[in-house]
């Protein structure tokens, strides 16, 4: 039997131990396009942000929670990707968790990625019943990657895809 206080660290460990793999790239001909960017969020400071603000940019949207072991397992790879692509790619990490819990989690782990609190329903193309759910959206709103479950976001595949999207 697992002691309740150790369950989360053990689950995160096993998520990392089995290995996080690079997500698959959607074929160009079968990519869904984001029809509606209207999605309200709030920043850490309480500022209202709409996904529309990022329209026309390469955007990585990640839905996550502090209580989700796969979410926690993939966070270091997202941070490494953010460190290299901040200012070039819009990183939008979205959660419905308690604000104080999220701020504490991010600070405790040294994560500097921007995070937002969900304030409205996400567009249907980027809505999922599971987390983590991550979407890489190109300049034209096409969903190049849609991944439910933990992944290695700092992989060569993801980096090459982002580099290609940034040159279009």
How would you explain this protein's 3D organization?
Pfam families: Redoxin. It is found in: Cell envelope. With 168 residues, this protein is of the alpha/beta class. The chain has a single domain (4-166), classed as 3-Layer(aba) Sandwich (Glutaredoxin). It contains 4 helices and 7 strands. The chain has helices at 4-17, 69-85, 99-109, 156-166, and strands at residues 40-43, 48-50, 59-63, 90-95, 115-118, 133-137, 143-148. It has a 7-stranded mixed β-sheet with strand order 2-1-5-4-3-6-7, with no helix packed on it. Helix 1 (4-17) packs across helix 2 (69-85). The protein is globular.
CATH superfamily: Glutaredoxin
Mean pLDDT: 91
- For the biggest β-sheet, the strand order reads 2-1-5-4-3-6-7
Q: Total strand count, please?
A: 7
What's the total helix number?
Answer: 4
And the CATH topology? Glutaredoxin
Shape, principal axes of CA atoms:
globular
Distance between the termini: 53 Å
CA gyration radius, whole angstroms:
16 Å
Instruction: Name the CATH class.
Output: Alpha Beta
Fraction in helix: 25-40%
Structural class category: alpha/beta
């Amino acid at each position: 039997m697992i002691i309740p206080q150790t369950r989360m660290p053990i689950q995160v460990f096993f998520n990392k131990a089995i290995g996080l793999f690079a997500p698959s790239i959607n074929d160009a001909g079968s990519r869904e396009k984001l029809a509606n960017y209207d999605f309200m969020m709030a920043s850490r400071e309480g500022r209202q942000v709409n996904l529309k603000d990022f329209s026309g940019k390469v955007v990585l949207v990640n839905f996550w929670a502090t209580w989700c072991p796969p979410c926690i397992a993939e966070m270091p790879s997202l941070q490494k990707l953010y460190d290299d692509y901040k200012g070039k790619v819009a990183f939008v990490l979205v959660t419905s968790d308690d604000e104080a819990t999220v701020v504490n989690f991010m600070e405790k782990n040294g994560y500097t990625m921007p995070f937002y609190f969900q304030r409205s329903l996400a567009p249907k193309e980027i809505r999922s019943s599971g987390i983590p759910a991550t979407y890489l959206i190109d300049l034209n709103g096409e969903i190049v990657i849609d991944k439910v479950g933990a992944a290695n976001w700092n992989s060569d595949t993801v980096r090459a895809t982002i580099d290609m999207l940034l040159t279009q």
